[in-house]
Specification:
With 128 residues, this protein is mainly β. It has one domain: ApaG domain (Immunoglobulin-like, Sandwich). It is built from no helices and 9 strands. The strands form 2 sheets. Strands 4, 5, 6, 8 and 9 form a 5-stranded antiparallel β-sheet that branches. The protein has a 4-stranded antiparallel β-sheet with strand order 1-2-3-7, with no helix packed on it. A hairpin with a 5-residue loop joins β8 and β9. The chain is elongated, with a radius of gyration of 16 Å.
């Protein structure tokens, strides 16, 4: 598990290879990840936007952006935790993800970023 505290937001990530959904002979590797977001600040915040940088073992980089996470823009009061699960397909058995969330302080309207730590996507399939 990877974890990072930035701007008062603690983000922890656990990733797992999903062999049941993968087809290595067709260069399709599927990974799931579980993210826990904890508000360690003294004010209420809302997650507005996500930006992911996904890199595979072939050196290809893909960026994914969009509103919220899995269709939600959660509001976290001080000490609150929000968690969710998602997934990522890759054309290689190894890769990584990292990114950031655009957050807003709901009391002041101030926008800021919370960094998502870089985490590895590693399959149990060996590369030849």
């Amino acid at each position: 598990m990877e974890s990072l505290l930035s701007n008062g937001i603690q983000i922890s990530v656990f990733s797992r290879y999903q062999p049941a959904y993968s087809r290595p002979t067709e260069d399709q590797y599927v990974f799931s990840y579980h993210i826990v977001i904890k508000n360690c600040r003294q004010d209420t915040v809302q997650l507005l936007y996500r930006h992911w940088v996904i890199t595979n073992a072939l050196g290809e980089v893909q960026e994914v952006e969009g509103d919220g996470v899995i269709g939600q823009q959660p509001v976290l009061e001080p000490g609150d935790v929000h968690s969710y699960d998602s997934w990522c397909p890759l054309p290689s058995p190894l890769g990584s993800m990292e990114g950031r969330y655009l957050m807003v302080n709901t009391e002041t309207g101030e926008n800021f970023y919370a960094q998502v730590p870089r985490f590895q996507l590693e399959s149990t399939v060996m590369m030849n």
